[in-house]
Amino acid sequence: MSKLPHIGTSIFTVMSQMATEYNAINLSQGFPNFPVDRRLIDIVARLATQNVHQYTPMSGFPPLLDKIAKLTLQSYQRTVTPKEDILITAGATEGIFASIQALVNANDEVIILDPSYDCYEAPILLSNAKPIRISLNDDYTPNWENINAATNENTKLIIINNPHNPTGKTWTESDFVQLEKLVDSLPNLIILSDEVYEYITFEQPHISIHHRPKLWNSSITVSSFGKSFHITGWKIGYVIAPEHLMKEIKKVHQFLVFSVNSISQVAISEYLDSVDVYSLGNFYQQKRDFFRNLLKETKLQLLPCEGTYFQVASYAEISNEDDLAFTKRLVTEFGVASIPISTFYANEKDTKCIRFCFAKDDATLIQAAERLKKL
Q1: Residue 75 CB: number of other CB atoms within 10 A?
Q2: Other beta carbons less than 10 A from residue 364's beta carbon
Q3: What ranges make up the beta strands (E) of the chain?
Q4: CB–CB of 289/311 below 8 Å?
Q5: Above 90 in pLDDT, residue 370?
Q6: What is the pTM of this model?
Q7: I need a surface site. Which of 123, 209, 342, 346 has the fewest CB within 10 A?
């Protein structure tokens, strides 16, 4: 008997396979198609000849842990202890999985805010716990009335994602005030904050859990070098949590992967000495603006994009099809792959919206826009 009977092939896999089958431009899966920084490539090439190919310590390569602590202090003015508070993970997904498996018990309830990324629910179900899916407002802001109404003494964890995938929405100061009030009312509540796009925000600066001292003792933050450095295939992320939570997460991590790819950790540690992570926002804002300007010549209606490298668009003026049917037809008839937003909802809410990834070179975005003009 399946432990996850209702979970099938990921929509990201489905749409990428269709893109390959129909020779379509793949704006569905969230990965860049432009070159990695030459400095990082050169570092890896040099390290490949050195003695960096064996296990690192379970928590991570010590110099990398030190540099993450330094980055956290520079970015958020928060001091964390490398040995106790930081864990290098096999991508952000492993960090999320290990955290949930470590801290969520049978019959606990976990709040997920829909539309939500698809990796949250499975580890909850594997813990014999109950995912509680709460829809965001129509503008993708948190509905605090519904969140507060759904929480009770069984609520163990709330998962937040900021900047938000799939919508590109970012949280405001008032959202964090409401979250602090929720934690005050439920002192045993744990926050799992998925912040993998933390350095990709635009007009409004990113507000992090790291900015909220009142939440530090009850929060886990998850970050991604893969997203920040255009190296999604390396699957290198990290988790920051207070020691009383981290020691439990490490128990799961050590039996899940034990330690993460050594050469990648050493390379990133060295690369952090020269790279400017704060330039990512400007880099992707230019991508966003370029893509949005191209799409002005289509019949798609663009929603605001405040962060991430995803653009949500409404096709309501083009078709009354459900979004899954529309995205499939977009591949087969127009040669562009996207993701239907309904697949991010537990109730498959169809808002006639789709998600494009604009982490692509200009030529790809231009070609995609030309095809979308034919809609």
Answers
A1: 16
A2: 17
A3: 25-26, 86-89, 109-114, 130-135, 155-161, 190-194, 219-224, 237-240, 301-302, 310-314, 336-337, 339-340, 353-357
A4: no
A5: yes
A6: 0.97
A7: 346
